[in-house]
Write a structure and sequence with these properties.
The protein is α/β, with parallel strands linked by helices. Helix content is 50%, strand content 18%. It has 2 domains: 149 residues, Bacterial extracellular solute-binding protein, family 7 (D-Maltodextrin-Binding Protein, domain 2), CATH 3.40.190; 136 residues, 3-Layer(aba) Sandwich (D-Maltodextrin-Binding Protein, domain 2), CATH 3.40.190.170. It is globular and about 60 Å long. Bound molecules: D-xylonic acid.
């Protein structure tokens, strides 16, 4: 090969390769491939597990495969507080947990622990997605987490091994596991229960070995953790609606480009509709499974719900003080507005 033609080849090669290499470099600099671990406490086939799968597909699609979601199901990333702490420290990218379990990191979220706050699913969804719900979610960033969306754990119902509970008096002395939240503990203690917090992952064993007599959770969560297999009685109390918070690590979030943040935020937000729908269907199916497994399911006797609400007025006052009166009032205004429109 002559020197001149050799030079020509090298020159041609540089012209082709250099722009490609530069382009790849620019891409890497702006938006490197990202792995997003998403930890959640229920099984892979639960409504929550399937929602995380959908979220993963959506993120992969919208980022052309550059952002990869790696779900961690069944609490395999550790207890809820551990996963939350890891997210705060930047050791985990996203944590999906009951807002109640996030209260220790961001107190105002305790507003959602108000007993009997929501009358039905539609009302809960409307208020959570309203201005007051969303600005609360934005406030979470003070805690080291970034709130992306509210998904649904659902209306909670009480189970136990001691006796059927249909009247206020029946709650007496039941050793009940609650979530680690002041409002949850106060609610049940006011009803005469001996309420103590315990990590969700340990609930089944604690019921089985008799450390606790009962617990309270939405139907699909009970079934996902096989809690119904170690419980005799369930009362349809619907005493609290717990949202799930889809929470990103703020430390990690701030390393992302605005475009990637948008892809992830939009995917979490849009997935809420699928997740809530699946959660509702799962609640119906789970109740059937719970009954089929031999658990006796009771309703509260007529008039008992208002007796219970009356007993819980002091709990409301504590929640209002903890979250601040403006948030308390704004939330209740939003609920009343929704109710008057829904009529
Ligand atoms: C799942 C928890 C759980 C919660 C609880 O990780 O602790 O009782 O209801 O569902 O979020």
């Amino acid at each position: 090969m002559k020197i001149t033609s050799c030079f020509f080849y090298i020159r041609a090669l540089t012209l082709i390769v250099c722009p490609l290499a530069n382009h790849a470099l620019a891409q890497t600099r702006e938006s490197p491939p990202v792995v997003i671990r998403v930890a959640q406490g229920l099984s892979e086939d639960s409504h929550l597990g399937r929602a995380v799968t959908l979220f993963a597909e959506r993120v992969a699609r919208d980022s052309a495969g550059r952002l990869t979601v790696k779900p961690i199901h069944n609490g395999q990333a550790g207890t809820d507080p551990k996963a939350m702490q890891d997210a705060i420290e930047g050791k985990l990218e996203i944590f999906v947990g009951s807002t109640t379990t996030i209260v220790p990191a961001y107190k105002p979220l305790a507003i959602w622990d108000t007993p009997f706050l929501f009358a039905n699913y539609a009302e809960a969804h409307a208020v959570l997605d309203s201005k007051v719900g969303q600005s609360l979610l934005q406030g979470v960033s003070e805690s080291g987490l970034v709130g992306l969306a509210y998904w649904e754990n659902g209306f909670r119902n009480m189970t136990n091994n001691l006796r059927p509970v249909t009247r206020v008096e029946d709650f007496a002395g039941i050793r009940l596991r609650t979530m680690p939240s002041e409002a949850a503990i106060n609610t049940f203690n006011r009803l005469g229960v001996d309420a103590k917090p315990l990590q969700f992952a340990e609930v089944r064993a604690a019921l089985q070995n008799g450390t606790f007599d009962g617990q309270e959770n939405p139907y699909p969560t009970i079934v996902s953790a096989k809690i119904h297999e170690v419980q005799k009685y369930l009362t349809v109390t619907n005493h609290m609606y717990t949202p799930y918070g889809v929470m990103a690590s703020r430390k990690w979030w701030l390393t992302l480009t605005a475009a990637d943040q948008k892809i992830i935020r939009d995917a979490a937000w849009d997935t809420r509709l699928f997740q809530r729908e699946e959660s509702r269907k799962a609640a119906d199916a789970a109740l059937v499974s719970i009954k089929a497994s031999g658990v006796k399911v009771d309703e509260l006797a007529i008039g008992e719900r208002s007796r219970i609400s009356h007993r819980l007025e002091k709990v409301n006052a504590v929640v209002a003080a903890n979250v601040g009166l403006p948030l308390w009032i704004e939330t209740h205004n939003q609920i009343y507005m929704y109710r008057s429109r829904a009529k």
